[in-house]
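Forum: Protein Structure Q&A
Topic: Joint prediction for protein chains with partners

I've read a bunch of threads here and the consensus seems to be that you should model interacting components together rather than docking separate models afterwards. I'd like to see that in practice. Below is the full input, 579 residues plus whatever partners are listed. Could one of the regulars post the assembled result?
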Amino acid sequence: MNSLYMPKDSLIHSLDPRTKMLFVVFVVASSFILNDPALQLVFLVALFPLVVMAKVVKPYLISIQFLLLFAVLIMTVHGIYNPIGVTPVFEIFGGLTFKYESMVYASVMSFRILVIGTAAVLFVMTTHPSDMASALVKWKVPHSFAFILLSTFQIIPIIAREAKIVMEAQQARCLDVKGSLIQRVKNLVPMFAPLFIITFMKVHQLSYVLECRAFSRKGEKTSLRETKIGSLDYTFLLGMLGFLAFEIYLKLFMMGSLQLTTDALLTYSLFGTWIVFGFMIIKFVVKQFQGKIGGAN
Amino acid sequence: MAAKAIEVNNLTFSYPDTDEPVLKDINFSINHGEILGIIGPTGAGKSTLAMCVNGLVPQVINGEMEGTVKVNGSEVSESSVAKMSEDVGFVFQEPENQLSQMTIEEEVAFGMGNLGVPRDDMRVRITDALEQVGLTGFEKRSPLALSGGQQQRLAIAAVLAMRPSIMIMDEPTSMLDPKGKNEVYDVLKNLKDYGMTGIIIDHEVERIAAYCDKVLVLYEGEVQMFAPSEEVFTNIKKMHELTLNAPQVTEFLSSYNQAFGKDVKLSTTLEEAVDNFESVCK
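Posted by a regular:
Agreed with the consensus. Here's the joint model:
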């Protein structure tokens, strides 16, 4: 399979793609409504049971690692250098001070990335691309647009294979791919020019094929895969609406009295991301080392 | 008289910015249930001719066209390619370029979906089409995971599922190994059993001779021969003039006749050739 879709049997998988798209929208909206680090952290933790329910915990953790890189970067750099900060929280070696206001700002931003990332990963991993396309068509999105989305998944591995062929062919014609960095950048031209031409030719041919498969025919189109909004979807949508109402209520009436964000929370979440990041680096180094000494696998 | 499956009259076609037409005054017709093989050297206009039959030329691929092409009695130029696809299925040369869906069953369902075939009907037709090309049991796999021969058969299945009455295959076997070629030709034979009309463009004269009812020889845009396959391939002199070869058994008998001054009747099938040869040697 070329997409990130994980075929599993779960409640989340059986939801209609449209429900899940609305879910992503809901999460994005929520992440902006709840612009407070503590609430966002709670929201992030609250999303996790959904990931468990969808049975995609391991692939989720793998893909969220990359977003964590952003989070570490934002929290560290903004925490120290963002000019909005005035109240010092703590100091690390070299006299670099983390300030309260900038840490709040950085945490909100990075948690927002994580929250939206979680929702997006959840959507992509539990929705079959064809279902997404047919759901879009049901939302009156033009058929050709849905097809473009879908065929992207298909054309990426084909282009990757063509790229390999072009590279090998150019190497056979004495193209130096192991030279200096400048040389390699220069060599991108003889790599990409043929690749673009090949891709355009392929797409051109595909357009003929589509024409021969009645793609531009007017009238009703049908789809093999069925997407239907059922009671489960309605329950889910109602839940989301309820939650949204609660968020707005919280935002409008409770923000004054509710003050969960503290120095400790900010510091610990910063340390938390550092520790996880440290683990990632250790894992990476160990893997590299294993590769060098020709260890297992 | 019932309308012919395909009727081409005085067809001349030239691509933009070229002086000489790629097809010159083509005339031929085939009946329902017949399989036509088109042979000729590269650049003779075989693909262009095939694409005229379903309207890709000149509607999608532009150029100047004169003459008429009729399919099942109605003019191709009066209808769109998408509309024509209900009657005429087209299989292209490169298997990989013809695939656009995530799984095999969706690939087969794609064309039907565009035609608006109901879902229950789709299931039946998918099973049917995959069975015809020998891909049963592969429904949930990715098309990219198949071998070249399987991909080409999948492309054929996708067209078959649309239930056209005419099937055109443009060099469907040129990318395939001998086994893959046989697989494609076996499908072609099945078509005949189903009463479908077929056009196949190929360089495989042996297989063309074995499977096709009629053969059309195209050379530099002109029809040089159009006759039952036996008649075309036994006219060895003309074939050689056009830089083409007849099947090897026919070539053998012809060389034998020339070398030993004999007059063995030429044949395109192995069994008949053996019989003819034996009757002279006795």
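Strands of chain B lie at 6-14, 23-30, 35-39, 64-71, 74-75, 88-91, 166-170, 197-201, 214-219, 222-228.
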